[in-house]
Amino acid sequence: MRGAKPWTALEAAIRRGAALRPGETVLAAVSGGPDSAALAALLASAAARSGATLMLAHVNHALRSSAWQDEGVVLALGAALRARVAIVSLEPGPADEARLRTERYAALARLARAAGARRVFTAHHAADQTETILMALFRGAGPSALGGMPAARELEAGVELARPLLGIEPAVLRAYCAAAQLPFALDPTNVDSAYRRNALRTALGALREDFPHLDAAVARCAAIVREERDGAPAAALRRRLRAELVAAGGDTRDITFERLDAAARALERGRRGRHFLRRGVELVLE
Q1: pLDDT (tens digit, 9 = 90+) per residue, 173-216?
Q2: Of 2, 150, 163, 278, whose CB count within 10 A is highest?
Q3: pLDDT average, residue stretch 231-240
Q4: Closest CA to 161 of 169, 170, 151
Q5: How far apart are CA 126 and CA 219, in angstroms?
Q6: d(Cα 39, Cα 164) in Å, to the nearest integer?
Q7: How far apart are CA 211 and CA 229, in angstroms?
Q8: So where are the chain's domains?
Q9: CATH class of the structural domain 8-210
Q10: Upper half-sphere CA count for residue 188 (Cβ side, 13 Å)
Q11: Cβ-proximal residues to 149 (8 Å cutoff; 6+ apart), any chain
């Protein structure tokens, strides 16, 4: 990303997706990897500004010997961020992705209730969103699969799961970790082709060489699909603007989504200004 502070987009994503409140306690799910380390540091900074309390939560899957190293990394991160750390270990069992995911989320919900937190934050990012959408399509899922993971959903009654980094590419998170000198560990199972998602990740690696912003584009597409599916105000305004332009005799095919969306969101927020849509077409909001 351009600029002297390439992680500015991260801070903006946390402001929008977290909106921490004074006195609130929130949990950051931290695996020990760079993505969740960056999330924890960003939330710690936001909590300090807002008067909220951050707690780090680590779930040890007890599947490999280096899992204890991950615990140590999370404890070191908690010390660096001056945040309390809660650790829970899962019962030994088969390395089944679905089972581990279910038990991990259940453990996070228990930790949240014990801490009095109503929100659990995870570090799912744009590459995770790409993989989730493709995995769903390969299973033969319907159009709703194109919406990918939502930015927030109910984890259990009274506890919300929040994903504020879905539009952020993992390279940006790594850059943030380096700049902030955050401790993290790399999970060796991320390259184990026995896991279907890792096999997909390997195939996507070649595509990302030719399409370096593939993940950000897919994340943006997923967000658009969710807005259209859920009838969000911005989606309705985009359709209305396009219809008005067509009715006025204009050709909308070469108007980019980004420009139309910017105009729709300005309308939604009641802002004045001029919006260039394409050569010869300008929208004036008064």
Answers
A1: 999 999 999 999 887 666 565 667 777 888 888 888 889 889 98
A2: 163
A3: 85
A4: 151
A5: 6
A6: 9
A7: 27
A8: 8-210, 233-285
A9: alpha beta
A10: 6
A11: 124, 128, 129, 132, 163, 166, 222
